[in-house]
What does this fold into?
Amino acid sequence: MRYSILQLARQALGRHRGWGPAWRDASPRDGYDIVIVGGGGHGLAAAYYLAKVHGITNVALVERGWIGGGNAGRNTTIIRSNYALPGNEPFYEWSMKLWEGLEQDLNYNAMVSQRGVLNLFHSDPQRDAYARRGNAMRLHGVDCDLLDADAVRKMAPFLDFDNARFPIQGGLLQARGGTARHDAVNWGYARAASALGVDIIQNCEVTGFVRDNAGAVTGVETSRGTIRAGKVGLAVAGMTSHVAAKAGLRLPIESHVLQAFVSEGLKPLIPGVITFGAGHFYISQSDKGGLVFGGDIDGYNSYAQRGNLPVVEDVCEGGMALMPMIGRVRMLRSWGGVMDMSMDGSPIIDRTPIDGLYLNAGWCYGGFKATPASGWCFAHLLANDAPHETATAYRLDRFRTGHMIDEKGAGAQANLH
Amino acid sequence: MRIPCPYCGSRDSREFVYRGDAAPVRPASDLASDNADAMFDYLYLRDNPAGQFEDLWYHAQGCRNWLRVTRDTITHDIAGAVLARSGRAA
It folds into this structure.
């Protein structure tokens, strides 16, 4: 069923009783050309682009829980491509371009809103660093603007500009950045992939891998039976080490919990996404009115999808330092998601040493904005056995060879950032 | 989380600095031996288990001892802590 204004009118006349499920809830068949493990945004996007771009529709996507139950529904919905390094910027810009055409492509309202991402700076050296990042972005063909304090004041007059310790001197603005509705992104990809023939199999946990005599992966053992596969792609960020261990892989990844928060609903207040340059705090406002904000990971290895209070306090202190006006806003909810923290802070989209097993992992804090390009590049890798041109740096062996992607000098632990 | 410091008793986790997985052991770093693989393993590869896990915490705002804490990464339950210098737990 194609969604459109005419369809809406037709369904309205039928009292909205004609809407069907957005995707088929498939049961596993015996075998597929490609099985993707993990029904988050990245896995769904990979399945969709496999079917659409590469014409491979004999694809199953197996998900332990339900679509949208993991990190896909636990992020802060920011999309941006303000990276500096050659290994990163073309990839994230490709993602940004896919975001810009996503809703028309999927025929699904993902509420992509390019309301701008503003990174504030508070000192001369930080301005220099942001100017450098902005120049690097422009050399990659991505627009951005270095704003002075007056220009920031016009955009966001409520910030604490004259803070004694962290006066706001300006900011780096990527006007094309913004937010998207995270659940809708996943539902949209699931619906579009399912319509092209991909089997989306929920409540199907991978418990092991089927290996042939040479050790190659030829399928997955699941809680709903064995599924043969020509190739298996892992897109299970958060649980990557846990799943990969079933194939005997040890990876340069630690799992950490990252919390996010939303306030009660308010009238329109914050124009775009604003990040604090003197601490780790970022904030935006959802279309529903809630302030959505977050900060650091809790800092210790964790698979629990909840964090502890010290980080709640730290994040709220960051918010108060940046915009004291939110001091009386009540926090409505908080939640935690499990992050694949890779050892250099950058992702992995690569083949593994095991034939037939492919890896998409290590997204650290930043997986959501990468969803379309991650799916695109993973599909390209699965279809062609070669990396997509924008993802050639995301190699699994870069830690052994010394080709780390040192975007922020950040590793798996917050105290190293 | 509260961490049962063997020296100070049960203390809030924010008194501690986190170091990470207690399992990796730094390989010998004499120039003669070619230990690139061992060093790669030590620096980058982690078991990263979901469940029982031993990690190192430094009691910076307490007794300034290094602790080896046995913790469940799924529930955050802490089973116990020993001084790291007391050697590796079995």
